[in-house]
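Project outcomes to date are best conveyed with an example. Our students and postdoctoral researchers have been running inverse folding experiments weekly, and each run begins with a structure described purely in tokens. The record below, which covers 130 residues, was selected by the lab manager from last quarter's runs and is presented without edits.
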């Protein structure tokens, strides 16, 4: 992992995507390709059963300091304290919610999650390691 080159105090202007969790390769952290039964990592070739895929946070933000705008992406477990749960467990809760509520598409739970993330991050000031 790269070391921090500097610190940037900035405010979050917007959330750049609505997908905050992704299936991640345990070896190289790249996004996994999932089908109904298997996963495959295109970067390192790791494969396995889809039910065993692990998940990771990926939050893309537009931020601003006093002079400039920046697009940044925050990855991994450093987001656990903000979400209050690991990405793995949040993904499990979302799947369980969709099954229990009979949701055939995940649109309503995704919309609720996006609103919650926007409320928690937009307009707030953070110190980012860059």
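After processing, the design step wrote out the following sequence:
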């Amino acid at each position: 992992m790269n070391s921090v080159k500097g610190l940037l105090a900035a405010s979050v202007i917007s959330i750049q995507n609505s997908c905050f969790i992704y299936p991640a390769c345990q070896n190289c952290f790249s996004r996994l390709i999932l089908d109904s039964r298997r996963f495959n990592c295109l970067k390192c070739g790791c494969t396995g059963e889809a039910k065993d895929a692990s998940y990771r946070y990926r939050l893309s933000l537009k931020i601003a300091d006093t002079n400039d705008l920046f697009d940044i992406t925050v990855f991994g477990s450093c987001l656990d304290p903000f979400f209050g749960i690991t990405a793995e467990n949040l993904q499990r809760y979302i799947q369980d919610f969709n099954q229990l509520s009979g949701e055939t598409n995940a649109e309503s739970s995704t919309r609720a999650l996006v609103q919650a993330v926007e409320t928690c991050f937009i307009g707030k000031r953070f110190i980012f390691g860059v």
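The first strand starts at residue 7 and ends at 15. The mean pLDDT is 90. The training component of this project remains on track.
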